[in-house]
Amino acid sequence: xxxxxxxxxxxxxxxxxxxxxxxxxxxxxxxxxxxxxxxxxxxxxxxxxxxxxxxxxxxxxxxxxxxxxxxxxxxxxxxxxxxxxxxxxxxxxxxxxxxxxxxxxxxxxxxxxxxxxxxxxxxxxxxxxxxxxxxxxxxxxxxxxxxxxxxxxxxxxxxxxxxxxxxxxxxxxxxxxxxxxxxxxxxxxxxxxxxxxxxxxxxxxxxxxxxxxxxxxxxxxxxxxxxxxxxxxxxxxxxxxxxxxxxxxxxxxxxxxxxxxxxxxxxxxxxxxxxxxxxxxxxxxxxxxxxxxxxxxxxxxxxxxxxxxxxxxxxxxxxxxxxxxxxxxxxxxxxxxxxxxxxxxxxxxxxxxxxxxxxxxxxxxxxxxxxxxxxxxxxxxxxxxxxxxxxxxxxxxxxxxxxxxxxxxxxxxxxxxxxxxxxxxxxxxxxxxxxxxxxxxxxxxxxxxx
Length: 450
Prior knowledge:
- Helices cover 61% and strands 10% of the residues.
- It is mainly alpha-helical.
- It has helices at 15-20, 78-81, 83-102, 139-142, 152-169, 188-197, 200-228, 245-267, 269-273, 277-287, 299-313, 317-384, 388-449, and strands at residues 6-14, 33-41, 44-50, 67-69, 72-76, 107-110, 115-117, 130-132, 143-146.
- The longest helix has 68 residues, at 317-384.
- Strands 1-2-3 form a three-stranded antiparallel beta sheet. A two-stranded antiparallel ribbon has the order 4-5. Strands 6-9 form a two-stranded antiparallel ribbon.
- The protein has 13 helices and nine strands.
């Protein structure tokens, strides 16, 4: 009751159908077919609207889906694709929290007939006193504690598995979040590859959005303005060029590389010789989002300003000073090299003189050794020529001296033995005296005790 069903039709409409509805198109169609929208309620047409842009044979709807569905234009979204994995993640996380909460403290089993708190409160607290109501019972019989097992380690793998399933089902791998494998981070090239590939899938989806939403909408706006706008100054033959986020990212990467190249060229003259510096600067400026083109000079203006500056300033004083300092440095280097060469030659001559003096001293030492050897041999010959009587006399004197030494040694040993015996006798007397003193002390102690 009081409800109506309205059917909406989007599609082609023939000229015959329009004539029946007494609708005159605003332009002529080659095949007498147009595109429009018709609303019908209980067999009556309540609304008819032809396309607002001539020859636009497409629905006025723009759809971009994450995953296409053959049976629906709306496709499959991330929530639907991750529904199962998300449910597992939520339930597992709740289980982890519940188990952690329940296993965080001990559970208590208590027999209230055998025990009661001194303060009348059955809540546990520090320094609380409990009374055992029966004498033949123990506290272990009245109260027991036990812990619920913590199974978080068993639930975490399930949680991680559900997360990985969600990544696979949603077609978003970990690398899309900026993560990479440990092997890629071992080198600068690997890190750069991982950085560029980290948003590949999202770049693809961004291009899908631009292809199905941004570009057709802008083209429809442009076509409508070219056909229906009352301002003729905005009309012209233009083409819509949609720049995606991927192109913007690549542009930023190119601009970064150009800046690095400019800095390196300023520090490396050999690299600067291989580059067209003015062209490099023009490309850098063109890649920047400069709000006004008049900020950047043209090539003719740049060359004219350089020539004017050179003509006004003449030779650059800073350059001349640098050249003069370079010459002074070169002269100083030549002087130091000459002095170093002279010093090396002097050191070589001094070393040669020292070596010659050492060699002369060695020869002189060898000659002295030879002379000493000859003198020794002569003395030995003289000694051999002495008479046997002198030799016997010398031998007899040596024997007498040896006998005297042995006698003195024997007498000295006797003296040392006598002294040693005296020391031993004194030690024995001292020990006997100490024993006598100890015996007297013991007798005195016994007398005192009695």
